[in-house]
Design a protein that fits this description.
- Keywords: Acyltransferase, Transferase.
- It comes from Paenibacillus odorifer.
- The chain is of the alpha+beta class.
- It contains six helices and seven strands, in the order E-H-H-E-E-H-E-H-E-H-E-H-E.
- It has a seven-stranded mixed β-sheet, sandwiched between helices.
- Strand 4, helix 4 and strand 5 form a beta-alpha-beta unit.
- Helix 1 packs across helix 2.
- It is globular, with a radius of gyration of 17 Å.
- The relative contact order is 0.15.
Amino acid sequence: MIAAPITIEPMQAKYNPQVGRLLVHGFRGKFQKLTSMNDDDLSLFFENLFEHYPTELASQRMVALQDGEVIGTISIKWKPESDVKQKQELPSWKSFNNLGKWNLLKMLIGLSLLDHKPQAGECYIADIVVHQDHRSKGIGKLLFQWAQHFAQTEPHLNVLSLHVVGSNPRAKQLYELLSFQTHLQKNSLVRHLLFNESKWDYMVLNLNKQ
């Protein structure tokens, strides 16, 4: 049986539940110390976040699709060329009522501590996740290729960057195979307390535009 083709497409609201579940399964290890929410509640948290929290102006989320199913996702962002500031508002408590205000507050604080503000010329990969049933099939590489092509075609961008935790040497090795180089190693007590991850590598891929 021939496998259905894989396409990389922009995020749409109809994919919110699937992407929410992907993020939970991909980053469960980071959230388990931060919150007592189960996987279903965490998935609902991300689904509501996508629906009610405004996305950043200079950002883009893509999904990898096969037979209409989301099997991977990548989120990138960059520094806006203009100084127009986007008004950020906390999502309505009502949207997350069943999750509890304390859980919501801890998750929002945790996500804010993971947030990275790109510098001029930097295209930052905020997250990349592949469905556990579709790993080692080149889907992550396809998503990276999309991000690299996007950054290559934007004249104001000249590097791709990302963070990888020290407890995931396999991911770091993959990024090195994709020509990323460790630019900075960080030790964070706060992130260790919240996510049980103290060592973080900041990796960069120079695009070498002619």
